[in-house]
Design a protein that fits this description.
- With 282 residues, the protein is mainly α.
- It has one domain (21-273).
- The protein is built from ten helices and two strands, in the order H-H-E-E-H-H-H-H-H-H-H-H.
- A two-stranded antiparallel sheet has the order 1-2.
- The radius of gyration is 20 Å and the shape is elongated.
Amino acid sequence: MTTTAVHTAPSATGAPALPGAWRLGLIRGAMEIRLFFRQREQVVFTFAFPIVFLFLFASIFRDHMQHTGATASQYYVASMTAAGIMSTSFQSLGVSIAIEREQRVLRRLRSTPMPPAAYFLGKIWLVMVTGVLETALLLTFGATVYGVNLPSDATGWLTFAWIFVLGITDCALLGIAISSVPRSASSASSVVVLPFLLLEFISGVYILIDTLPGWMLTVGSFFPLKWLCQGLRGVFLPSAAAALEPAGSWEYGRIALVLGAWCIGGLLLCLLTFRWKPRDER
């Protein structure tokens, strides 16, 4: 485990004062980011995987969607951007934290004076940096290759910003919560990736939203990925494309309500389920 030197100022009693959780979180986040970019295979997989899938689906489905002013290729840019956000948060945290727990990294960190909040702040910084980079790559690729129209005013970018922040927060919290489900590090990928794949299919990532069976739409609407996809389609597709949505509109108010509710629900799940030690330890 990599350690980072922290310089502290003396307290009123003469003993060194420990840095606050926020400062330690920044230091921990910088370390997490460095460790991530040192693993070249992980970096390539994280950033290339959604772009490759975008290229495949956009190459297969290139037709114009009737009466929408958009192509299926542009639809997949928005959907794969949402999937990329969930990949860098839910999938990444769910697997990495489960591995760190089994390797006793979490137990050692818990026994240090570092506040628990600093560990999670470090993970949040990692998720935000990788999420922003991957989103920027996907949107640049989509705008250059498939002609996706990026917002031309501040209102459009502000809408994108709050959807992005709420969506990545939801997925990160759910990733932390699901990290306690795997019984071992070897099973972490299977436990985390399976629900992620299922959600991608029933949330309109791989299949056009207007062709999904009604029961799939109903199930998908209980989870944040469906609303994250819908919000990003509203930002990057023409307004006429809202006719594809079940309600015939982008429903920004409902998107904010559902994603906001999942922020609260995800936090509660983390508080109730997170474990610092493996299952075989008491």
